[in-house]
Amino acid sequence: MSDLIEGYLGKTVEGKKSRLPAKLDFIQSFTGGFLALFMWAHMLLVASILVSKDFMYTVTKLLEGSFIFEGGNPLLVSLVAAVIFVIFIVHAALGMRKLPGNFKQFQVMKAHAKSMGHDDTKLWFTQAFTGFAMFFLGSVHIYVILTHSDKIGPMASSDRVWSEYMWPLYILLLLAVEFHGTIGLYRLCVKWGWFDGENPKATRKALKKVKWALTVFFLVLGFASLAAYMKIGMENAKNGTVGERYQPTAKVIEFNITNKSVGRIA
Ligand code: HEM
């Protein structure tokens, strides 16, 4: 069936009714939900440094598949990073559809949001801003990890954070990702009516509280982890040990031998 559609530059054009926008919306929701949950796991794994260097070393080895390959294989991490990168790009490309195309559109949206005085509409601006920032910040990080997956570990990661100046990028990325991820999950719940129950209004209020609690939790965890990597990186720079790999303690070597993961040192 054909339809009259407001086209580019305001010209009216003939077009077909299509289910494509709904399908794209679904893919955007799915990739967003997946990335947000991936980030929770990611932040918990990165935070392993808060337990001990040995623990972060062991986590790194397990993620390199040390229970399958002797000594672990960082290619496995590169492979996962490549898949995440593709999902990240698809999600960002679909998100672009929602950004205003010119200043006039932006003004209209801003005036509209202001006149409604509706908090959830204001959240849209935070999503657009943090999403835009992540285009650049997230791409740099994922590419660096993808191409240097053999340099992850208590010493190597700390050197990257401090001596290779990743910490300013991580501060901005951490802020962007923690707001974007939890707001995104909240919006998914509202959009698709998950947990609506008897009283959707009350649910929305409760969801907002959970959203804030999660943002604060992951920001505190993230900044504490970042501080730990920066501290180790600074010590390495002071002691002239930048570039040296971590030597696990005897206890960890024993654990790794039983799990087939001796070999490369992280
Ligand atoms: C498979 C993909 C990924 C891997 C293997 C990975 C790995 C890592 C590692 C090892 C660190 C510790 C610092 C370092 O070694 O440089 C780190 C930090 C970080 N990553 Fe990722 N990352 C991945 C994807 C992402 C994505 C998609 C994002 C968000 C767009 C992200 C955001 C961050 C942030 C914000 C930090 C700093 C966190 C902190 O220090 O508290 N990462 N990542």
UniProtKB/TrEMBL annotation:
<dbReference type="GO" id="GO:0005886">
    <property type="term" value="C:plasma membrane"/>
</dbReference>
<feature type="transmembrane region" description="Helical">
    <location>
        <begin position="26"/>
        <end position="51"/>
    </location>
</feature>
<feature type="binding site" description="axial binding residue">
    <location>
        <position position="91"/>
    </location>
    <ligand>
        <name>heme b</name>
    </ligand>
</feature>
<keyword id="KW-0349">Heme</keyword>
<feature type="transmembrane region" description="Helical">
    <location>
        <begin position="71"/>
        <end position="94"/>
    </location>
</feature>
<dbReference type="Pfam" id="PF01127">
    <property type="entry name" value="Sdh_cyt"/>
</dbReference>
<keyword id="KW-0560">Oxidoreductase</keyword>
<feature type="transmembrane region" description="Helical">
    <location>
        <begin position="210"/>
        <end position="230"/>
    </location>
</feature>
<keyword id="KW-0408">Iron</keyword>
<keyword id="KW-0813">Transport</keyword>
<comment type="function">
    <text>The fumarate reductase enzyme complex is required for fumarate respiration. This subunit anchors the complex in the membrane and binds a diheme cytochrome b.</text>
</comment>
<feature type="transmembrane region" description="Helical">
    <location>
        <begin position="123"/>
        <end position="146"/>
    </location>
</feature>
<dbReference type="GO" id="GO:0006099">
    <property type="term" value="P:tricarboxylic acid cycle"/>
</dbReference>
<dbReference type="GO" id="GO:0046872">
    <property type="term" value="F:metal ion binding"/>
</dbReference>
<keyword id="KW-1003">Cell membrane</keyword>
<keyword id="KW-1133">Transmembrane helix</keyword>
<keyword id="KW-0249">Electron transport</keyword>
<keyword id="KW-0472">Membrane</keyword>
<dbReference type="InterPro" id="IPR034804">
    <property type="entry name" value="SQR/QFR_C/D"/>
</dbReference>
<dbReference type="InterPro" id="IPR000701">
    <property type="entry name" value="SuccDH_FuR_B_TM-su"/>
</dbReference>
<feature type="binding site" description="axial binding residue">
    <location>
        <position position="42"/>
    </location>
    <ligand>
        <name>heme b</name>
    </ligand>
</feature>
<protein>
    <recommendedName>
        <fullName>Fumarate reductase cytochrome b subunit</fullName>
    </recommendedName>
</protein>
<dbReference type="InterPro" id="IPR004224">
    <property type="entry name" value="Fum_red_B_TM"/>
</dbReference>
<feature type="binding site" description="axial binding residue">
    <location>
        <position position="180"/>
    </location>
    <ligand>
        <name>heme b</name>
    </ligand>
</feature>
<dbReference type="GO" id="GO:0016491">
    <property type="term" value="F:oxidoreductase activity"/>
</dbReference>
<feature type="binding site" description="axial binding residue">
    <location>
        <position position="141"/>
    </location>
    <ligand>
        <name>heme b</name>
    </ligand>
</feature>
<keyword id="KW-0479">Metal-binding</keyword>
<keyword id="KW-0816">Tricarboxylic acid cycle</keyword>
<keyword id="KW-0812">Transmembrane</keyword>
<feature type="transmembrane region" description="Helical">
    <location>
        <begin position="166"/>
        <end position="189"/>
    </location>
</feature>
